[in-house]
Structure formats: structure tokens, C-alpha cells
User: Fold ABC transporter ATP-binding protein from Salinimonas profundi.
Amino acid sequence: MININAISKRYSHADAPVLNNLSLTVSDGNSVSIRGASGSGKSTLLSLIAGFESPDSGSITIGSQTLPFSSEKNADIFRRRELGVIFQSYNLIECLNVWDNIAFTCRLKGNSDDSYQLHIMALLGITHLKNKPAHQLSGGEQQRVAISRALVHKPTLVLADEPTGNLDEDTSDTVSDALYSLCRSLDTTLVVVTHSEDVARMATQQCWLRHGQLHSEPA
Ligand SMILES: Nc1ncnc2c1ncn2[C@@H]1O[C@H](COP(=O)(O)OP(=O)(O)OP(=O)(O)O)[C@@H](O)[C@H]1O
Assistant:
């Protein structure tokens, strides 16, 4: 579960806050999609939820953890255990192959689950890429590896920034089906930033970010 209570964020030198008294609650196993104009603050909101940045005011609680983290070490432990993040830039480790990129987080925790990893890779259609180095992948292939890596350690919260942005329509449907259904089956909370109406409509809750706040209707 995630509970965001009246957060505000203003970057230095900006005329207005990018997020202004924004609140949001999403329960376990549910999902929220967030749409909004470019520059409206969607990535900033994900960054605050992940604890990469802090709000100027308000509070964010993920399960029993209230942000900010007490130390960078605790932040790392929490992110490795509880959080899956799908970044706009996939952040794969170029010198590792697909299998090792996906297994990386689990190996750090010492709890690899090869059969679950194969299950996710099959759902996302990337099993045949298992041994291919990350630097030889297309953008869409990298995106599906990044999604697999975000899910393989069975996190309680997944933050996805444009998870289908680089995919054709058919692959986008397959990948979004897999993302939503894997999260539901793990009872994982999912926050998806997307420009795709099809991807957004699959969420249990749809929101639009405007003037620093979330709305349940488009403008
Ligand atoms: N680190 C930063 N320092 C200063 N300003 C920032 C920083 N990060 C983002 N901004 C500004 O905050 C605003 C919101 O940016 P953000 O990336 O959150 O928007 P977005 O809705 O995700 O956009 P897009 O859809 O284009 O990815 C923009 O005006 C951006 O220039």
C-alpha cells in the first residue's frame, strides 16, 4: 500500500511548485495510472515515491515505511527488497547478458528464483534473448528486460515510468498485460506513468496530473 499525504515540491529557481498539496492512496494489489502533459511532474512524483528526492512538505508512506529513510543504507535495503523501478532510460548493465541483468537484484539479496525469472521472461517474450549481452539489444528488448528486472524479486511496490514507450502496439499489449497481471498475482501495488490510453485504462484507478495535483478526470 502507498499513502501520499499533501506533498509539495518546488525546484530551486522555479516560479511555481511542480507538485502542490498532492495526495494519493493505492492499496495492495491495486494499480494507478498517471497521465499528464510533458513537464507536469509525473517523473518527479515517481522519484519522490522512490525516495530519490524528498518533498518540501507532506508525507509518503509505503507499507510500514514512512519516508524519508533514516539512512542511505536503509534506503538501499528497502529499495532492493520492496521496490521495483522501471526507469524511462532502462539503466541495464551493458556488459552483462539478459539473464544476469534480470537476476542482479535477487543475487544481491541472495534469493534467486530461476523458475520465476523464466516465467516472467516467457510472459514478456524475451526467453530467446537470455544469453545476449545488453548492449546488443534493441530499445524495445531493453525495455522488456528492465520490466523483468523490476518484477523478479517480487517487490511490494512497482513504479513504472512509460513502461511501453518504446514498443509497437502488439508488443505493448502483451507487455502491459504481463505487467498488470504479475503485479496482481503478487499483491503488488503498481504506479504507472504513461501517455498510452490503453495502458492507463488497465489500472484500477486512473489519474491526470495537472497544476501539481492529481485529478480523476482529464482536463
Ligand atoms: N532536478 C530538477 N531540477 C530542476 N527542475 C527539474 C528537475 N527535475 C525536473 N524538473 C522540472 O520539473 C518539471 C517537471 O518535470 P518532470 O520530469 O517531473 O515532468 P514529466 O511530467 O515527467 O515530463 P515528461 O512527460 O516530459 O517526462 C519540469 O519543468 C522540469 O524541468
